[in-house]
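I have been asked to look over a protein record a colleague put together. What it holds is a sequence and that sequence's fold in token form. Please read both lines and tell me whether the tokens look consistent with the sequence. I do not need a full report, just your reasoning and any doubts. This is what I was given:
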Amino acid sequence: MNKSDIPTPALLLDINVLKNNIKMMSDYLRDKNAYLRPHIKCHKTPQIAKMQIDAGAQGVMVAKLGEAEEMVKAGTKDIAIANQVVQKAKIEHLAELSHQSDISVAVDNPEVIDTMGNVATAKGANIRTIVEVDVGMGRCGVRPGENALKLVEKVNKTKGMVFVGLMGYEGLAAYEPALEDRKKRCYESYKKLVDTVHLVERNGITVDIVSAGATTSFSIAAEYPGITEIEAGSYVLMDRAHKMEGVPFNYALSVLTTVISKPTIDRAIIDGGLKTFSETEGLPKTEDIAGIEFNKLDEEHGYLRLKNQSSRLKVGDMIEFIPAYSATTVNLHDKFYVTEGDNVKNIWKITARGRVD
């Protein structure tokens, strides 16, 4: 199949750029004290996860239990869930999955720890547990310092639970556009996390995992003393939201669309709308043709403003767009068309697509 034969709108995955992004991250971390645990919420695809692990990643990180289940089905043996699992039925499923794979899960609540311990004991499981510390994101996580220590001690005393480490996502600090400003803010978050690690260790508890980092802060986290695990995910596909100073990865992901109408010389309509593109972090852009500006999205339509050479666009022409944010765009699609140049080399099902449970 040639690119021009693909029914649009469709997700394209440039296999050579994908491989190069994976290699760049692997090469960078080879002599660092932190290893990679890539967050697969951005691609949700076992083939890509296997490529990352084969290149040296410790395992994978997922957002939800449903994603973990899909990775277990694919044979992944080391999985971390970077989210709280609190419903009893889900905890029971987590305990069952832990018999098939080494799965760790984030916790920040003592009552949930009690429930997990009871369920794990009943099912003959030991649930690996990472205490999440709020280092400035203002989302999930226990406060650093004594509050985190108390939760770690509770996990350590609860039958059926195994404490393995601490995690702290630096959140908005990782999105400072200027690299030096980003470093400064990330360091403030990491200090809270690592100081908490030292407190826990002074109280006689071993901390094996100290997890942080994102695509925009992977190198900052990897070089900060005490951090052992990097959670970067979007680097593998890349998107415009993560393309900033200090981030060397390239666009492997694009969305192929077709012009379906051209009512005027300065306006065209494509077949990709809100069901094709996520508006998270902004509208998509194209590098194909100069002068195309995305105006807005309807349910099934994308509105383009045309100027200069783009005014020569005609109905039937195909255009590739780079999404502003890859993870929420990928979750709208069932498959990747894996391309090399203009040729389609494979089609990969996005097996964890829609697994927000």
